[in-house]
Amino acid sequence: MRTALVIGTGLVGTSAALALAGRGVHVHLADHDPGSARTAAALGAGTDEAPEGTVDLAVIAVPPAHTAHVLATAMRDGVARGYLDVASVKGGPRRELEALGLDLAAYIGTHPMAGKERSGPLAATADLFEGRPWVLTPTRDTDTEVLNLALELVALCRAVPVVMDADAHDRAVALVSHTPQLISSMVAARLEEADETAVRLCGQGIRDVTRIAASDPRMWVEILSANPGPVADVLAGVAADLEETVAALRGLGSADEGKRSAGTHTIEDVLRRGNAGRVRVPGKHGAAPTAYETVAVLIGDKPGELAAIFADAGRAGVNIEDVRIEHATGQQAGLVQIMVEPSAAPVLEAALRERGWSIRG
What residues does the Prephenate/arogenate dehydrogenase domain cover (predicted)? Predict the structure, then answer.
C-alpha cells in the first residue's frame, strides 16, 4: 500500500491516518467538515488535498448511519482499488450496499475494537490500535487483493486481525461494547441527583463502572440505532437478572426465614456467575487471564512519583503487569495499585519499603 484516502477524520479515522502516514503511506484526508480534515492534516495525518488519481485503499470512517451512502459514493466514483469501513456495526451497512446493487468484490467491512471517551481528530493517536483486535468480515465475494489490503492496514496499525461473520460480530459487540456503554451510563445517571455527601464517597469502583459514561451521547445514539436488536436482547437478559436481584434484596429484609434464604441464594448465584464471566475476559496480550498480586503504595500528588516507583520496580527486577491509581478525595495523595506476578509481590514490597515507600495492606 502506497496511497490511501481516509474519509472521516474523527478519532478512528485520524488515528488510522496517523499510523499509516507514520509508516510511509501517502494519506489523503476528507471530511464533510473541511476544518476537521485540516486539523487532522496539521497533526501529521496526511494532506487534505484530494488525490489526483486512484488510491490503493479508501478507509470510510463515518458514523454507521452514513457508512453505506459514503461508501457507495466513493465506489461509484472509483476513488480506490479497495474499500473498507470501520463502523462499529457490520451487517446493516453491507445489506444497504447490496440493496443499492453495487459490486462488493472490492469492499470489506472491518471494525477496530479501540476507542476513547473523547472524540474528534484532536483525540487521535497513532498507537490507538496497537495490540487491539481489528475485526474483518470478508465474504465469498471479497476479492483477495482487497482482503490483503485490509490485512496490511491492520498490520501497519499494529492491531490483531480477527475474522468474523458480520452478523456474529454485531451480536458480539452488543454484548461486549454496546450494552456496557448503556449500563455505565445508567449507573452514572444515578449520581446526577445524588446528595453531595454521597458523591464525595465515590471510590475506584464507581470510577471504573462509570468511566465510559463520559462518551459522546450523539455518537452512541447513532451506534445503537444501527444495532438495536442485539443490544435489546442482551439488555433483556440483564433486566431479568435485575428483576430477580431486586426481589432477592427485598427478601433479605423480610422477617420470613425462607425468603431471606432464597434471597441469599439468588444474590450469591448472580455474583458467582459474574466471577465466572469475568474469568473469561482475556488478559495481557490476549492470553488467558492471570491472577496477579496487588502491591498498594501511597504516593504524593507531585511530579516524578510514578516514574520513581516504576524505576525502583525495575531495579528490583520486577515486571509491572498492570497499574491503577485510586485518588484520595480532598487530599494531595493517591494509592497506586501495582499488579505483578504472585512470586514477584514479596520482592517488590521489600524493595519499595527499603527505598522508603509506604506500602498499604
Answer: 2-289
State the pTM of this model: 0.76
pLDDT tens digit string along 192-203?
999 999 998 888
Q: Report domain extents, the chain.
A: 3-164, 170-279, 293-360
Picking from 114, 227, 235, 242, the residue whose alpha carbon sits closest to that of residue 182 is: 235
The contacts of residue 107 (CB under 8 Å, 6+ apart) are 71, 75, 82, 83, 84, 97, 142, 146
Averaged confidence pLDDT in the chain: 91
Cell of 336: 497506586
Q: What CATH code would you report for 170-279? A: 1.10.3660.10
Cell of 256: 420470613
Q: What is the CA radius of gyration of the chain?
A: 24
What fold, for 3-164?
A: Rossmann fold (3.40.50)
Class of domain 293-360: alpha beta
Please give, one letter per residue, the 3-state secondary structure of 289-310: CCCCEEEEEEEECCCCHHHHHH
Give φ, ψ of 31 to 5 degrees. Answer: -160, 150
The 3-state secondary structure of 4-41 reads EEEECCCHHHHHHHHHHHHCCCEEEEECCCHHHHHHHH
> Tens digits of per-residue pLDDT, 143-161?
999 999 999 999 999 999 9
